[in-house]
């Protein structure tokens, strides 16, 4: 269903009769009242019925019956968040406004249930040994360890599916047959999966060189296969495209709290005393968006880590950006992380 939300916009001076015509004519079953581009009210057929029961004439203005405090949402919210808001409030449509309160769109619950397919390939790194998780990984690749009853890799693929992605490449090295036997070509999971095998570990950047030269022109999303997250990958990709970035690295805000007073100085002289300071840094989240040109430029079978790749491409004049993520994110690398994931998975809706 294509929505032309501008057709349901009326002014506060419009009559109730005109509002009713708009509501009946358009499939959205609502009229949005706007003055000076700002949303000031909403009218449904229920509002009209209640007005009539109160003796208000159809020739009166909609300002007499409209909901003057309609539920709206900032346009920056993801489809997942919009759906959750509409479901929690039991509403079928939600006006979208910008930071200044100006009406910029209308989202329906039906829209949030439709997933637009994206042609961007997804490259998942799943070849690590998982040494820190032994003995769990003695006979199982780390991404195939079960969290919430299914392999982490399956949860990751499903999350990408929820954002419209369906083309996957999986890099393997340690026990590749476990992964390939489980997922096959992806048809049982309604996706397409191809595999690239590292004979020797090439690092996160080096593995990119194993991808076929028939990749789509669209930017590629790369992610470590041992990450549990509900990041909106579509939003990350949209940022990369809008900013004309060549390589985008997702980063996390990381705090280090020092439990002591920190002394700053020069030589023997004290220049400052900071009591129990907190230092904040951005750390690599293991999620990247890489342009097709960069993938094509990599030498074959050469070991290369992603931070090094970013440094090299920045020196070469490519545009490299960071994208802070604030959603849930967990690198399942140690036993306590694995135990935490078993608890967190039930609250994530994954």
List keywords for this structure.
2 domains; 350 residues; globular; 3-stranded mixed sheet; Spore Coat Polysaccharide Biosynthesis Protein SpsA, Chain A; 7-stranded mixed sheet; CBS-domain; alpha/beta
How is the topology of this model organized?
Layout: E1 9-10, H1 16-25, E2 30-35, E3 38-44, H2 45-53, E4 73-74, H3 79-89, E5 93-97, E6 103-108, H4 109-113, E7 122-125, E8 146-147, E9 150-151, H5 152-161, E10 167-172, H6 176-183, E11 192-197, H7 203-206, E12 220-224, E13 227-229, H8 233-242, E14 247-257, E15 261-266, E16 269-275, E17 278-290, H9 292-297, H10 306-315, E18 320-324, E19 329-331, H11 335-344
Parallel strand pairs: 1-2, 4-5, 7-10, 7-12, 10-11, 14-18
Antiparallel strand pairs: 2-3, 5-6, 8-9, 12-17, 13-19, 14-17, 15-16
Entry summary:
Residues 1-58, 66-122 form the CBS domain. This protein is an alpha/beta fold and 350 residues long.
**What is the fold named in CATH at topology level of the largest domain?**
Spore Coat Polysaccharide Biosynthesis Protein SpsA, Chain A
Mean pLDDT: 89
User: Looking at this structure, what is the CATH superfamily of the largest domain?
Assistant: Spore Coat Polysaccharide Biosynthesis Protein SpsA, Chain A
What is the count of DSSP helices, taking H or I runs of 4+ residues?
11
Largest sheet: 7 strands, mixed
CATH class category name of the largest domain = Alpha Beta
> How much helix is in the residues?
25-40%
Order of helices and strands: EHEEHEHEEHEEEHEHEHEEHEEEEHHEEH
Strand-pairing-aware structural class: alpha/beta
């Amino acid at each position: 269903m294509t929505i032309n939300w501008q057709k349901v916009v009326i002014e506060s001076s419009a009559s109730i009769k005109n509002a009713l015509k708009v509501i009946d004519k358009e499939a959205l079953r609502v009229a949005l009242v706007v003055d000076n581009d700002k949303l000031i009210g909403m009218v449904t057929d229920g509002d009209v019925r209640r007005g009539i029961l109160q003796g208000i004439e159809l020739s009166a203005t909609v300002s007499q019956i409209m909901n003057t405090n309609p539920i709206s949402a900032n346009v920056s919210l993801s489809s997942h968040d919009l759906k959750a808001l509409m479901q929690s409030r039991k509403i079928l449509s939600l006006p979208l406004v910008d930071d200044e309160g100006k009406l910029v769109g209308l989202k329906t619950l039906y829209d949030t249930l439709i997933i637009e397919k994206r042609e961007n390939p997804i490259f998942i790194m799943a070849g690590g040994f998982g040494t820190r998780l032994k003995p769990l990984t003695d006979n199982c690749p780390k991404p195939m360890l079960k969290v919430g009853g299914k392999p982490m890799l399956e949860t990751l693929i499903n999350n990408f599916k929820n954002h419209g992605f369906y083309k996957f490449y999986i890099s393997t090295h340690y026990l590749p047959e476990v992964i390939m036997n489980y997922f096959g070509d992806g048809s049982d999971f309604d996706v397409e999966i191809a595999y690239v095998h590292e004979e020797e570990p090439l690092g996160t950047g080096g593995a990119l060189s194993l991808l076929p030269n028939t990749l789509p022109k669209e930017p590629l999303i790369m992610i470590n296969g041992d990450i549990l997250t509900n990041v909106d990958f579509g939003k990350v990709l949209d940022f990369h495209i809008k900013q004309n970035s060549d390589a985008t690295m997702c980063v996390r805000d990381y705090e280090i709290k020092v439990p002591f007073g920190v002394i700053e100085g020069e030589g023997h002289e004290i220049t400052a005393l900071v009591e129990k300071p907190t230092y904040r840094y951005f750390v690599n989240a293991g999620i990247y968006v890489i342009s097709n040109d960069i993938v094509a430029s990599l030498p074959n079978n050469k070991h290369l880590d992603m931070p090094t790749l970013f440094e090299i491409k920045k020196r070469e004049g490519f545009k490299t950006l960071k994208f802070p993520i604030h959603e849930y994110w967990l690198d399942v690398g140690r036993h306590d992380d694995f135990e935490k994931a078993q608890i967190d998975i039930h609250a994530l809706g994954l």
